[in-house]
Amino acid sequence: MSDFIPVNEPLLAGNEKKYLLECIETGWISSEGPFIKEFEQKFAARVGRKHGIAVTNGTAALDAAVDALGLGKGDEVIMPTFTIISCITQIVRCGAIPVLVDSDPLTWNMDVTQIEAKITSRTKAIMVVHIYGLPVDMVPVLDIAQRYGLKIIEDAAEMHGQTYRGKPCGSFGDISTFSFYPNKHITTGEGGMIVTDNDELAETCRSLRNLCFQPQKRFVHERLGWNLRMTNMQAALGLAQLEQLDKFVDRKREMGERYTALLHGLPGVQLPLAHTDYADNIYWIYGLILDDAIGFDAEEAMKRLASKGIGSRPFFYPMHKQPVLKRMGLFDGEHYPVAERLALQGFYIPSGLALTGEQMERVVEQVIETLAK
Ligand SMILES: *Cc1c(COP(=O)(O)O)cnc(C)c1O
């Protein structure tokens, strides 16, 4: 067997090394260094927002966003069941109630037509999560949020460089968040960003990030925060990566289109949608959904691919099926058939920026061989 093809490898071929060296040479390695502000400003500008608050990871960004909005006991937040656990943890921990909607079978994003029926007098916010490369259909969500006076938290962790009807993803939430984990379009190793236009929310997030130290009485606290500070070294990486974002998005699109061209027509498998009427896919990852008729599930397909040297990852496991949440008494008897099917039959193949054309051909060959049987 030739070399294993991992599911993701980042590309660090720009100014990453130069900026990192600068951190070491100047001694600015903590969260006080100059790259942080520069990265925050340039990233926020890129998504058309007034404020950027760099944090330790995308999960932390969501935690702070939920807390900054003042959500608490008994407040209801409508969100997709098909997402990562990061979206729900702070909602549950603060005593708020996650209210779920199912997914659209083609875009895999939250089915926005299910939102309105879930609204009650306790609903405070909608958390939208753009999944795998296509944005959530935002116009209906914005309309509902406005009519019912709801806040929007926008998880744009997978959407750097993506737009919805020409407007950047990350510009739609009262608070929006990003991740810079190495499998995202741009990476800082670990890292995240909160963006908002609201001065007060931005100030709250900055305070929450820094343990809610007070400017005047540093060690006297009026609120509980976290230490979510990003280091200058992470911001150095982020800045270098941000310079290459357009190139990265072009490359991801090229890769997605290539995969689709090579896999198109393969029986028994559903490929990602290339376009909707509001966006072109940026293929954060390249997902496949097996037809039930194929006779085995995603887990089995991934096992077979691994034995042929091809890395892959399962799709998200829905929130309403999470053992830890079920044990808390959440989502009892609830079913979301589309999300359940995505979790059972969906997985993704190597999609990282460092993937070569040759590797892609090997991946496709093995996928075809695996699924054709
Ligand atoms: C990656 C991701 C996160 C979490 O980001 P981390 O930086 O890994 O904590 C949150 N939401 C979505 C949709 C993600 O893809």
Can you walk me through this structure?
The chain is an alpha/beta fold and 373 residues long. It folds into 2 domains: 16-242, Type I PLP-dependent aspartate aminotransferase-like (Major domain) (Aspartate Aminotransferase, domain 2), CATH 3.40.640.10; 245-372, Aspartate Aminotransferase, domain 1 (Alpha-Beta Complex). It has helices at residues 16-26, 34-46, 58-68, 89-93, 138-148, 199-209, 232-242, 245-263, 298-307, 323-326, 337-345, 357-372; strands at 51-55, 76-80, 97-101, 123-129, 151-155, 163-164, 167-168, 175-179, 192-196, 269-270, 286-290, 313-314, 346-349. The strands form 3 sheets. It has a 7-stranded mixed β-sheet with strand order 1-9-8-5-4-2-3, with helices on both faces. The chain has a 4-stranded antiparallel β-sheet with strand order 10-11-13-12. It starts with 15 loop residues before the first helix and ends with a helix. The model has no long low-confidence stretch (mean pLDDT 97). The site of pyridoxal-5'-phosphate has 14 residues, from helix 3.
Concise structural overview:
The protein is of the alpha/beta class and 373 residues long. The protein has two domains: 16-242, 3-Layer(aba) Sandwich (Aspartate Aminotransferase, domain 2), CATH 3.40.640; 245-372, Aspartate Aminotransferase, domain 1, CATH 3.90.1150.10. It has helices at 16-26, 34-46, 58-68, 89-93, 138-148, 199-209, 232-242, 245-263, 298-307, 323-326, 337-345, 357-372; strands at residues 51-55, 76-80, 97-101, 123-129, 151-155, 163-164, 167-168, 175-179, 192-196, 269-270, 286-290, 313-314, 346-349.
